[in-house]
């Protein structure tokens, strides 16, 4: 026995030993009897044990089968269907009307019939309730309850998600079915009920977050509750849904437990920058979060947190002193709905008081700022709402009363304001006072820019030598004349340059006879007279867009504009570019700092031991575009050696190179344009191949490359970004900077820059100075937002006569002139 190792057998042997012990009173001498009895007992006991084991196994299996495998679980699906042969009546809006009940009965039996015909659905259907009707012709909304054994759950889910299985089958006996229905859609229901715990933060996420995408065709509810006389603060920590479209997935948050529009606080879709404030407050102790998803897409979803806080007793109050600050409740979180606050501000009796709003976001979707009927700030009978940059409201006394009102629905981040006392005889010491009371720098007076919202800084000006006097009396820089932008407001700066009645005005300002428009010849010299003639195939010219098939079309900028213009649709190929992942950038960060993910194609090129040297743009997973002059040898260093460089992608802050989302890549090869001239900076372009492709993320995306025929019109606003110096001769920025600048007429700019421009260059800037690219921005992107809202690379930061000086705009490599060379070397 010593050799036995099998545990059950060992136990059996032990039992046998015990049995032997139990027969010690038997006559020991009757050895024969002993011999015969011994084996017989063994057999009986063995059989008994086997029977016992079999019975236990069967009982276990039956128990498992009935308890787990066969126990029905309750499942609820929401859905809607369209009734084709029925007309909508107003009475269907009222669920207690007899008309509603009558149609509901018919729809219910039709749905039940559809279920009955499906083996994976019918047997498990328990109940269907029609909840509402809406127009079109009639759309019925319902929920259906099922009791399904666990092992059949998956096949039920699959059948309910499959549109093909939810179709009406004609019953040959009923030649005319009462209702003809189509588009039967069922959403998997997910409902959660959560109660805030005193002093604790409760988290919840979309199903499967962050490891798997949230389900398609789903309708999820999270009912959030808090103790009586508390309110709820809800924050979405991360939120990544399908990009916003009319029918895209979305979240709605309600200030109630019913998903009704008058209590909706916000509708969210797409992707939000991490710094965007997504905190919402309730006015009572309940909140409802809903997620509605369509049939396609795989997106991570959200993680949210909520906690309870004591109900706000009062807001507003009395403010005294020479200055002070105040904000909407819970700023910068979204203010709670259904709130009224009054501030009574009083400064010393010999002074006057003014209120300056540094941030103002009181926007209610669909409400024009001229009416401010829902959420608003009211001062001296005037209502303010919407989104505003800094503005001032001044009082002519030492008191001011400010009222803030939010209604039941849709809230925003509110305002942050300060009050200040001022001397009525000198309201802005050392500065210019706008008629609104705002103080602006004296240099801003009569500079052609409206710095006071009411334009009072540009009134009663005497125009200087460099300025043009508009018919309405305003002075504008002469270089703005004939740039195709109505700078005067009355268009007088564009009148002298308009063409005669029977002629066509080219994008470059030239006039050509109307008869030359669309005659197949480039009479303007920039192709604009042949730009948008017809969508049919035309003879290929320098200015016509060439489809992959070799056919040409005359539409201007047809690439990636969302319309298929080429017969082979090649104009819409490779269009995964030029879009930011985040729907909204942070509105809290002020100035010119960029937000995380705002320019996802921006690359920072570092040299070992020297840090950031140049910018670049990501144009595909493996290619960057930059400036050739970044790779010129300098002080004995061969900057053209790819092994010196590291590309940082997804970066915003140079002080946080290993921050989340940042990818570093080594460079495989650097190809500078062979015609690059290091004296004139003509052909200042280079392409860099990465050693391994990047992974596109919310903060890393490529920019669209324009076709060589793409037209960026003079006067267009473009964006330049980089970590270059923030002042001439200054140090680089640590946060990625952005600036909006204008494309300047080539002839005008060539005059300003003493004939240094070549056709591979273009001038972009603000001629009054103050906004420009600078050292360290070189190689970085100059981008244009096109009508399709995609962004295209228009230029590469190249050179300039200093930085941000008056009448010295920055010079950029003109992408369209260098496009064919990029294609040749990258295949893009
Ligand atoms: C530079 O040195 C540089 N103002 C880049 C752009 C400009 C000036 C200098 C344009 O990289």
Description:
Among the domains are: 117 residues, SEA domain (Alpha-Beta Plaits, 2-Layer Sandwich); 120 residues, Jelly Rolls (Sandwich), CATH 2.60.120; 112 residues, Spermadhesin, CUB domain (Jelly Rolls, Sandwich), CATH 2.60.120; 225 residues, Thrombin, subunit H. The strands form eleven sheets. Strands 2-3-1-4-6-12-8-9 form an eight-stranded mixed beta sheet. The chain has 828 residues and is mainly beta. Strand 43 and strand 44 form a beta hairpin. The N and C termini lie far apart (79 Å). It contains six helices and 45 strands. The relative contact order is 0.06. It is 13% helix and 32% strand. The N terminus is likely disordered. Bound molecules: 4-(aminomethyl)benzoic acid (4AZ). The site of 4-(aminomethyl)benzoic acid (4AZ) has 11 residues, from strand 44.
